[in-house]
Amino acid sequence: MLRGWVMGCLSLLLAVGCSDKKGSSPTEASQGQGKALKKVSVVLDWYPNAVHIPILAAAQQGFFAAEGLDVDIKMPADNPTDGIKLVGAGKETFALYYAPDVLLAQAEGIPIVSVGAIVQRPLNGIMVPENSGIQSPKELEGKQVGYPSTSLSISLVNTMVKAAGGDPQKVIMTDVSWDLIPAITTQRVQAVTGAFINHEKLLFEKKGIKIRYFAPTEFGVPNYYELVLITGKQTARQDMGTVEAMLRAMAKGYAWAQTNQTAALGLLIKGQSSHFPLDEEIEAQALQMLLPWMEGEGARFGTQDAGTWEATAMWLQKEGRLKDSLKSSDAFLHGVKRGEGEDALRR
Predict the structure, then answer these.
(1) What would you measure as the largest C-alpha separation in the chain, in angstroms?
(2) Where do the H-state alpha helices sit in 70-169?
(3) Global pTM exceeds 0.90
(4) Do residues 28 and 110 share a domain?
(5) Could you give the angle at the alpha carbon of 129 between the alpha carbons of 126 and 135, nearest 5°?
(6) What residues make up the domain containing 181?
(7) Mean pLDDT of 157-175
(8) Domain count across the chain
(9) How far apart, in whole angstroms, are the C-alpha atoms of residue 126 and residue 146?
(10) Most exposed among 103, 144, 152, 165, judged by the fewest C-beta atoms under 10 Å?
(11) Cα distance between residue 37 and residue 46, in whole Å
(12) pLDDT band for position 30 (50/70/90)?
């Protein structure tokens, strides 16, 4: 991935968006005026799409500026794990990544911490074409399952097949990189994992391929946060004010998108890159799916629960990915303070 042209696209999006005050609250737009903004950065996990709407809306609607922040939104330059490494090294302020990977990174000594849960449930899983006749993960024995070069994908499939009564050793795991859709359409594999229900499943179905989706939480995998906001431990210790301001602005961006879904979709489409074009129909469906999943039962946007982190750590330990000595409580910050200003945006 080339940061230069992607960042040019994002900078254009934010410049155009922030100069357009028609959709902004006059109060929010004016609060950041007259004072110097603190420059911070956030590295996305992938190209901008519906799952990033809290950040993109916060930028376009002036919520970051109202919190005193000038946020530089970046793409990973080489691979999706860039955010973890750069934040851990203190070269970037924030990043978005996946909760299980945050635990694994901490086990490797990378000094990061999750400060807010963005998606409260897994989006990953196992997908098979409905016409394959496969009715359960158990029936993947003897079949080829495509995955995107990540060891966690193997752990996910192992757990799900075992929970369904099958033998994961009989599953043929095939590394297809990120060519998950072609791997199915060319019949190279009979199933894929690493494909997200809010993206690949929708793309499959638009191509006329009906998909059967096996959810991880229905086959032995605990509920985990698919996407979290991370920062460096030093930032968390020394600059909690910036962390809290970032989360407040993102919560407002999320609330705005909830009540302005058409405008939120327009924001995504207007700011898309020609190198990573978005499908408006797909992104509209993805927004409808994702927005409710950014809050859980009794859990507001950004909330993190110790039990969820503990269950995720225990699963990774059982799969041999984590040592028992890692404390899941070190993976996230408890009780990050957040203002309640987003409530007004819901009305």
Answers:
(1) 65
(2) 82-88, 99-107, 151-163
(3) no
(4) yes
(5) 70
(6) 126-218
(7) 98
(8) 2
(9) 10
(10) 165
(11) 26
(12) very low
